[in-house]
Design a protein that fits this description.
The chain has 314 residues and is an alpha/beta fold. It is built from twelve helices and 13 strands. Helices cover 38% and strands 22% of the residues. Strands 3-2-1-4-7-13-11 form a seven-stranded mixed beta sheet, with helices on both faces. Strands 9-10-8-12 form a four-stranded antiparallel beta sheet. A two-stranded antiparallel sheet has the order 5-6.
């Protein structure tokens, strides 16, 4: 295939047109550029690993596009959902699909080493799985610990000098408990907010009405989850999305966690999927606040002289 940027811009513009999920699109574009760069420096086809691959849309799309540069037979997709993996195997024959929990160190140890590891919308599920019945919500310190352990496992699957691409949720900077005031554009949006508060599971969402029912105050943490997750209300995905917190790390926490695992960040992008939509539904009254970037895309390389750590540092 041609290697010039114009070709690939056109290729991905047409190939990814049906893929509405911005996360997958952003991750695929970033990984595609890395694959083409790494292939120029390698004397053998590249091996890809995706942890939490689902139906294989990310790794499968990349392998299809770069079949001359990647080794599909030695690339691997891992997911705990047997139904999703069956679809992945059907759509991308030749790709090795492994059913299991990618936080299992024994499972990871048997996979081998890879030039590129993909974590696309995967670690927030690890965070959300730390729900505590006693607390009635996620045990946040324990959940963050599990996320970093999972990141360490992913880093451990890299060849020396290998690359990791992560796309996931982003916690805004500042005090998550700081209160802001929002104003709903109409009563339908206000009712949808009530439905979200009642049905969202990972964390208790609290608020208080001010200046009438169209205006409420809530924490920055809860507001970020509201604009991230309530987009799924009324859709089939809501039954699973309402059980997950998309946010877990701030930018500072991501950078610190990557450094502890011997991963040098070369690109760190924050972005939003919901900004335009929410401006027509909710107004932020509190001065100094804006709709947060709720997504992050990170490209990082393993520092060969710094093996990944499997424990947290104080």
């Amino acid at each position: 295939m041609p290697e010039n940027d114009d070709f690939w811009d056109f290729y991905w513009e047409t190939r990814l047109l049906p893929m509405e999920n911005l996360g997958k699109r952003a991750a695929i574009l970033a990984a595609s550029g890395l694959i083409r760069l790494l292939a120029q420096q390698s004397d053998h086809p590249l091996r890809l690993l995706e942890l939490g691959c689902g139906e294989g849309q990310v790794i499968g799309t990349l392998l299809d596009a770069h079949f001359q540069l990647c080794a599909i037979q030695t690339s691997v997709g891992v997911d705990y959902n047997a139904q999703s993996l069956a679809r992945c195997q059907r759509d991308y024959p030749g790709l090795r699909c492994v059913e299991g929990d990618f936080t299992d160190s024994d499972l990871l140890a048997g996979l081998g080493k890879f030039e590129l590891v993909l974590l696309v919308n995967a670690l927030h599920e690890v965070f959300s799985d730390s729900f505590s019945p006693e607390l009635g919500e996620i045990d946040v310190p324990a959940a963050k610990h599990r996320v970093e352990q999972a990141l360490a496992g992913a880093a451990g699957c890299l060849e020396p000098g290998g690359w990791l691409v992560l796309f996931d949720g982003l916690e805004p900077p500042g005090d998550p408990h700081q209160i802001l005031r929002i104003r709903f554009r109409d009563y339908q949006v206000r009712q949808e907010f009530e439905n979200f508060v009642e049905q969202y599971h990972p964390l208790r969402i609290t608020y208080r009405e001010v200046e009438g029912s169209l205006c409420v105050e809530l924490s920055q943490r809860d507001f970020t989850r509201y604009i991230t997750k309530s987009i799924f209300l009324g859709k089939q995905l809501w039954e699973t999305e309402r059980l997950q917190s998309y946010q877990y790390f701030t930018e500072e926490e991501y950078r610190a966690a990557f450094a502890r695992q011997g991963l040098e960040i070369f690109e760190f992008h924050t972005l939003t999927m919901n900004d335009e939509k929410w401006r027509y539904r909710v107004e932020i009254d509190t001065s100094g606040f804006k709709f947060p970037d709720e997504h992050v895309l990170i490209l990082a390389r393993q520092v060969a002289s710094h093996p990944p750590s499997t424990r947290l540092h104080g």
